[in-house]
Amino acid sequence: MNPNVPSVEQLKGIALPAPVSYAPQTWGWWVLLGLVVVAVLLVSARRYWQWRRDRYRREALVRLAQLQKCSDDLNALRELPELLKRVALSMSPVRNTKPVGALGGKDWQAFLARHSAQPLPADFSQQLAQLAYTPDATLLALPNDQRQHLFGTCKRWVERHHVAD
Fold this sequence. Notes:
By secondary structure, the chain is an all-alpha fold.
């Protein structure tokens, strides 16, 4: 064998450094890790609490979508004011106000406007009262675009109303 020609027998092992642990070496990193874990748990718990708190809103939106599909049905139109009242009753209790179930007319309009994220039509509570109390023939004569506008306004209020007073 020629000594000038490299061969496998001439290779030598490489000295590897000692393994390095991925665990933090000082107590400060453990404290930081603990704070991050606590923060993640707190944010997750708050999100879960909000999700559970808004259950009434999700259920109302599902029912509203069902009602809107059959907006030509008289019962669907009559249920719309009741649905909004149930949503208002399901909200967290608002202090220093009349009970929501007893509100009507201008007080109901003021409540809806106070908790709305967007301006509502000035006669919105009157439109809801019309849906609840007018004769069937008058209600069936409502144009389709007015019905859809009512459903849209109700949907926006349910989606975006705020609970804090």
